Amino acid sequence: MRRKDVLDLDDFTVDELNEVLDTTEAMKEVLSRPIKRVPPLRGKTIVNCFFEASTRTRVSFELAAKNLSADVVNISASGSSVEKGESLVDTTRTLQALGADMVVMRHPHAGAPYLVARELDACVINAGDGWHAHPTQALLDLFTVRERLGSIEGRKVVIVGDVLHSRVARSNIWGFATLGAEVVLCGPPTLIPQGIETAVAEGLHRKMGNGVHKEHAAVRVQYDLDKACEDADVLMALRIQKERQAGGLFPSIREYSRLYGLTRERVAKAKFGTLVMHPGPMNEGIEIMPDVAHGPQSVIEDQVANGVAVRMALLYLIAGGQGGKV
Ligand code: NCD
Question: pTM surpassing 0.85?
């Protein structure tokens, strides 16, 4: 893989995506060993900068880096010089001067990791920027679907909920569409970005030369969840992002849940063996019912577990795949 930074999946080619997914399989094998530590990143320093709340993404990056024998340092906004008013670029330049080879960054503002990536020689990995992108979540979702269903091309993937505020949805749209899935976005019209189908179609068109599968790559909007569920291979619910809502985008939680909650009845309309996914953290009883979240179709725990292997694969590939055999 020849890139310094991973900021979103919009510029990933089919080959790059497949390279990450194939390498993830090798990393899963490492994770099945009694001693889960391999040497490729020995001597490298990775700084996790999490300027926004996170459990699974932060821990997963930390474990991934440690499993590859890197040195890991964690910083958060509170307790760092950010609190004293230092600019983001200055803080990250300082980290680089202290020896950081890679910076993993989560930030409440869209675009923040792009700014840092432009200024630093160190690699920058976006662990979620505002509403914008969350490429490693999308990679672990792609991996989970490929592992469970054997393929992604031609699959119908329904993403339901607060698409407007979801960086997970945005990165997943690029990932799934690039690999030839049909992505159906579902939710109240106020939570589906206007014109998203055309924007994605244009973005994919630009990538065509890189081998995007023309026949299937498509994004559609379907406001009726019962219809969207028909023949679905994957049902992915998104969290209602209360902290990002100015309010008034849907009438009430109860109505939202009635119209857009994943229930057993809705899952039954999908294909036999459909996968139920959620990036977490879940609002159980709102966007997903507890019996669905913990039911037989749910792969939500696989998603979390695969997150470590996917991030190991990415860190390894970004570091140049050198420094020791996995
Ligand atoms: C998501 C996030 O933070 O973007 N969680 C995650 O990383 N797994 C989704 C969310 O907050 O709803």
Answer: yes
Residue from 105, 168, 282, 304 to probe ligand 1 pocket by mutation (most atoms less than 8 Å from CB) = 168
Ligand 1 centroid–CA 161 distance in Å is 13
Whose CA is closest to atom 8 on ligand 1?
279
- Compute φ and ψ for 267, nearest 5 degrees: -60, -35
Alpha helices, H only, 134-214: 135-149, 167-178, 196-207
Question: Closest ligand 1 atom to the C-alpha of 53?
Answer: 3
3-state helix, strand, coil in the chain (%, to 5): 45, 15, 40
Q: Provide the CATH number for the domain around residue 184.
A: 3.40.50.1370
Among 48, 52, 61, 134, name the best residue to mutate to test ligand 1's pocket (greatest count of ligand atoms within 8 A of Cβ).
134
Structure tokens at 52: 């926004």
Euclidean distance between CA atoms 255 and 277, whole angstroms: 22
Judge if the beta carbon of residue 128 lies within 6 A of ligand 1. yes
State pLDDT tens for residues 89-113: 999 999 999 999 999 999 999 999 9
- pLDDT tens per residue, range 28-84: 999 999 999 999 999 999 999 999 989 999 999 999 999 999 999 999 877 777 777
pLDDT tens digit sequence for 125-181:
999 999 999 999 999 999 999 999 999 999 999 999 999 999 999 999 999 999 999
What is the extent of the structural domain holding 210? 135-299
Domain count, the chain: 2
Query: 280 alpha carbon to ligand 1 midpoint, in Å?
Result: 6
